[in-house]
Amino acid sequence: MTKTLLRTLAGEILPTQPIWMMRQAGRYLPEYRATRAEAGDFLSLCYNPDLATEVTLQPIRRYGFDAAILFADILLIPQALGADLWFVTGEGPRLSTVTGPADLAKLRGAADVHETLAPIYQTVRNLAGALPAETTLIGFAGAPWTVATYMIAGRGTPDQGPAHALKDTDRATFEALLDLLTEATIEYLSAQIEAGAEVVKLFDSWAGSLRGDDFARYAVAPAKRIIGALKVRHPGVPIIAFPREGGDGYIGFHAATGADCVAVDDSVTAEWAAEHVQVSGCTQGNLASRHMVTGGDALVSEVRRIRDAFAKGPHIFNLGHGITPEANPDNVSLMIDTLRENA
Ligand code: CP3
């Protein structure tokens, strides 16, 4: 098998770790900005299979990453369930809110998401036919808790306060929303796999705000249900879970959910993650995104440190979170060259 990402996910320790980057298709690239301008706005780009294929391929052409991630967004699922969704330039997403049983009742069923999402599956099919033979295609979805935080608040929130409040004041609605999202996510990821995604990743960007029992109930349990269902429907397709800022929750996450790989952000050190997380399976991460802005010797020494800390087990090199628009594209090359310097 030539695909280094799949070999690593199967547990092989390769002399050179495979690398890709969260948000690798994005505003730091001039070619992305040009295609996005052609599409008009961000959502039009997501739903245009030709242009979404093009922006997915741009970072592969420029850098030769070992994996391509489907260009889409975690908030397409709420939209496919019937929520209104729009993006305010410079501010972020806005959605119609779910604050009680009446809002929940207006949403569609999990099996009804495919009509809206059909163009996304077309992008996956395009990519499956267009990628170089050595490049792995990753599909993705948001985890139920993270997607719910946006649906409940109607926007991004620094502390996920509205979602925590609904959990405390109307747990039945909160849990019914998480159940619906869990089922819809199984449908969505399953369809991505059928269209040609070779790996899928579950982004739980706000898992870190789930404290105490809530982490087990609303980060671990939904991930376990989604991964369990996908393993039945698509045995052999590896799954990466990303419970961002999971802290001690990262420990045992492989076993608790069945994930093949656990991605770690940069709130933990690579040395800690190698000792406590990589012992249980493949890891991914965890260079701080700011090094893509600042570069230089600090970038080089951090890449070496992280690479070496994770060298004793299977590891996929990545950032701890997405690359930011102000990043310098040359620093991405420096990261890749440093990772591969001994190859
Ligand atoms: O990684 C990739 O290159 C694949 C595409 C991808 C996007 N979003 C494209 C995008 C992926 C995997 C995501 C995931 C996503 N989307 C997450 C989870 C990961 C994370 O970052 O924590 C979240 C929370 C979202 C929701 C979202 N989408 C927000 C809050 C925003 C606005 C903030 C911002 O960065 O502008 C987006 C917009 C978005 N999604 C952009 C891109 C390239 C920027 C939109 C633009 O071009 O204007």
Query: What is the overall pLDDT average?
Result: 98
CATH topology of the domain at 71-206 and 213-239: TIM Barrel
> What is the CA-atom radius of gyration, in angstroms?
19 Å
Q: Identify the bound ligands.
A: coproporphyrinogen III
Order of helices and strands, N to C?
HHHHEHEEHHEHHHEHEHEHEHHEH
Total count of strands: 9
Could you estimate the helical fraction of the residues in percent? 40-55%
Strand content: 5-15%
For the largest beta-sheet, the strand count, sense and barrel status come to: 7 strands, parallel
Counting DSSP H or I runs of 4 or more residues, the number of helices is 16
Uncertain residue ranges:
none
Instruction: Output the CATH class name of the domain at 71-206 and 213-239.
Output: Alpha Beta
Which architecture of the domain at 71-206 and 213-239 per CATH? Alpha-Beta Barrel
- Structure classification: alpha/beta
End-to-end distance:
18 Å
Order of strands, main sheet, comes to: 1-4-5-6-7-8-9
Principal-axes shape call: globular
Pathway: Porphyrin-containing compound metabolism; protoporphyrin-IX biosynthesis; coproporphyrinogen-III from 5-aminolevulinate: step 4/4
Domain Uroporphyrinogen decarboxylase (URO-D): 18-27, 138-154
Subunit structure: Homodimer.
Main location: cytoplasm
Q: What's the helix and strand layout?
A:
Elements: H1 4-9, H2 30-39, H3 42-46, H4 49-63, E1 67-69, H5 76-80, E2 85-88, E3 92-95, H6 101-105, H7 114-130, E4 136-142, H8 144-153, H9 161-169, H10 171-195, E5 199-204, H11 213-233, E6 239-243, H12 253-257, E7 261-263, H13 270-276, E8 282-287, H14 291-294, H15 296-309, E9 315-319, H16 329-339
Parallel strand pairs: 1-4, 4-5, 5-6, 6-7, 7-8, 8-9
Antiparallel strand pairs: 2-3
Helix pairs in contact: 2-4, 4-7, 7-10, 8-9, 8-10, 9-10, 10-11, 15-16
Bound molecules: coproporphyrinogen III.
Coproporphyrinogen III (CP3) binds at residues 22-27, 36, 42, 69, 71-75, 92-93, 140, 142, 156, 203, 205, 322.
